[in-house]
Amino acid sequence: QVQLVESGGGLVQAGDSLRLSCTASGRTFSNYVISWFRQTPGKERQFVAGISRNVGRTYYADSVKGRFTISRDNAKNTVYLQMNSLKSEDTAVYYCAADITSGRIGLRSYEYDYWGQGTQVTVSA
After folding, report:
1. Rounded to the nearest 5°, which phi and psi values hold at 111?
2. Do the Cβ atoms of 35 and 60 come closer than 8 Å?
3. How far apart are CA 20 and CA 121, in angstroms?
4. CB of 36 within 8 A of CB of 49?
């Protein structure tokens, strides 16, 4: 089983920046599609950003385009989510997810095989 561990969450003010990290186990990390999801109470987990396994192409939810950047360092088995210009609506538990099978960036949570424990991001207005 692939293990994913998120870190970097915290309490910040609107307009601030935060960088989340997701470190994964496995010797074939470079072949994993890795995405970030977020979830608020009473709502479904929603897609935030994803990065492909081959050439590192990225895809972002409309709500975070221009503000968030996803990247990966395969040598460190780590994916990052740089979050700039944070807004109160970005407040959520952020999860790292891995798809080791499809090779595509899926937009639905059920398309992913493994999940981290989540890290809380709180943005005060």
Report:
1. -80, -5
2. no
3. 9
4. yes
Say which residue the tokens 């943005």 belong to: 123
pLDDT tens by residue, 63-105? 999 999 999 998 899 999 999 999 999 999 999 999 998 888 9
As to burial, measured by CB atoms within 10 angstroms (0-12 exposed, 13-18 middle, 19+ buried), residue 48 is buried
79 in Cβ contact with 96 (< 8 Å): yes
**What letter represents residue 8's amino acid?**
G
In whole angstroms, give the CA distance from residue 91 to residue 39.
9
Could you tell me if 7 and 118 are in contact, meaning their C-beta atoms sit under 8 angstroms apart? no
Q: What residue spans of the chain are helical by DSSP H?
A: none
* Beta-bridge partners for 112: none
Give me Rg for the CA atoms of the chain: 13
